[in-house]
Amino acid sequence: MLSIMICDDEEIYVKELSRMIKEELEELNIEYDLEACTSPKKLVSEYDKREDSIDLIFLDIDMPEMDGIDVAEAIRQIDEEVTIVLITSMEDRVYDAFGYNIYKFIRKGLEMEERKSLIRQCIKYVEGKKNIYLFNTEQEVLKLRENEIIYFEIELRKFYMQTTKGRYRIMVTRFEDILEIIKNNSNFAMPNRSTLINMRYVRTITKDLKILTDFSGKQETILISRNKKKAFYSKFVAYIK
To answer: Domain containing 233 — which CATH number?
Structure first.
């Protein structure tokens, strides 16, 4: 279950944003707890007293009682893990938020479909942080979040996992074993019979059937086989919608 908080002093915008968030969560079939707060001071004062943690916070920057960036700063002193998204109608304030690990900025003036697309990206990002998997490697049991896994591949009948932390050989014998571990997570897809990639890291698909991916300052190219093209494209489109 995702726990989400909206903090905005304008009731009208709170209702509009709540509706859009609910629509995306329900379409993604994700259980959620959605709260709204119109007092940023109250949010900050009660944050560390909460029994349940919050996964995702949507904060309006322009609030008279307490600036949204000040709220983000205060929350970061309490919670380094929560994902913070800033809502703004003042683009020049974006630069003031650097240093507070803000995941994304959403402009109020965007068309509704653009805002919903960004909201969906935020939800998928947080969901990826919550999904945790265990893999047996040659030397240890590795605990990884979904968003730390880049791809799996088979080489000379051995399976390897490329992650943001490094490359590991994992003790499985089939791709079906991996799919069982990740519970057939739909964010992963096979561009060819030797690779299973996290769609989060697919940056570009070229006309000559190549996937361009980048991570940890590196860039890699993965080929899409022609017999996997249609299924992979369908997965990619579903992921980015």
So the answer is: 2.40.50.1020
